[in-house]
Amino acid sequence: MEFPGVQLRALLELTRSGTMTAAAAALGYTPGAVSQQIAALERAAGTELVRRLGRRVELTDAGATLAAHAERILAAQAEAVAALERGRGEVTARLRLGVFGTAAAVLLPPALHRLRERAPGVCVASRELDVDQAYTEVCAGRVDLALGLDYPDAPLALDGAVELVRLRSERFGLAVAAGRVTGRRALRLADAAGFDWILPAAGSYYGRAIRAACRRAGFEPRVVHEVTDTATSLAMVGAGLGVTPLTELMLRLRSEGIVPVPLEDVVERHIVVAVGAAARQRPSVEALISALREGAAP
Predict the structure, then answer these.
(1) Which of 80, 113, 215, 217 could cross-link to 189 by cystine, CB 3.0-4.6 Å?
(2) Strand order in the sheet with 122-128
């Protein structure tokens, strides 16, 4: 009786999500593909694991039993990979790294150069992700680790299977069009209540975090342009279309026509690496995290 990891992950996600459609969205599959994974798992187990209740599904007793063991099985597989890697005596591995736009442009190149010098046997394949999906992508096993962002004003919901390793914390200021303000004195966030804002959607972690900080300062930001891409937001600021939050790493993407204005209010974000708890023990993973941490340093 064999239970492939991809099928166990499908069962676990179905347990969390409750529907084939939601599980498929989280795993990046079609609902039909998730259904096929569950059917294959049922054939291997020799019994029914889920019961359909309209659009939702619930676990049978056998399904609940297998789901209770699935995380331990997957963790044991990851621990075995880590032990084999440690036993080779040299750091060699192929790693899949999820990245988001700013990280790919600013953090990844110097980190990979450092890694190549220190651990030439580690080969990294990167894949751009929606930053809000970094944690989910690691949980689903589609990447080994992923660069992400965590906001104190809109924190990620975590479980024990995946860890967040903090690389750097950054305070937000404001990006303002040149000529809009005199000097670069620090502003209170409340002073920006009358500005037009350029922000991501309210449903994103970033969008929620900034709106929460503005409400704490006593106002609702007047979002005139809803934009996700940082470089695009900064270009719009440079064109005089509004203000947007700004960190030092963001400023590396574009600085033309922009005045960075510090905020008196503490509004932060943490640049993190999401990594499976067992995978963290792999020397190759630790080498990559170390290179990323150095690349993220001020």
Answers:
(1) 217
(2) 122-128, 93-99, 145-150, 268-276, 162-171
Encoded tokens for 224: 């005139």
Distance CA 49, CA 42 (A): 6
pLDDT digits (tens, 9 = 90+) for 14-38: 887 788 888 887 777 788 888 888 8
State the amino acid at position 151 in one-letter form: Y
> Which residue stretches of 217-282 are H helix?
230-238, 248-251
Q: What does CATH list as the number for 5-84?
A: 1.10.10.10
Buried/exposed 254-264: b ≥16 CB within 10 Å, e otherwise: beeebbebebe
CA dihedral 277, 279, 282, 287 (to 10 degrees): -90
Tell me the C-alpha to C-alpha distance, in Å, between residue 6 and each of 41, 47, 198: 10, 18, 40
Burial class (CB within 10 angstroms; exposed 0-12, middle 13-18, buried 19+) of 36: middle
pLDDT at 200: 97
| Both tokens assigned to 211 | 């709106």
Q: What's the number of CA atoms in the CB half-sphere (13 Å) around residue 120?
A: 1
- The CATH superfamily of 90-166+272-296 is Periplasmic binding protein-like II (3.40.190.10)
Q: What is the CA radius of gyration of the chain?
A: 22
Domain 173-266: give its CATH superfamily: Periplasmic binding protein-like II (3.40.190.10)
Q: Is residue 185 packed enough to be buried (19+ CB in 10 Å), middle (13-18) or exposed (0-12)?
A: exposed
**Do 98 and 127 meet the contact criterion of CB atoms below 8 Å apart?**
yes
Per-domain residue ranges of the chain: 5-84, 90-166+272-296, 173-266
| CA separation for the pair 79, 89 (Å, rounded) | 17
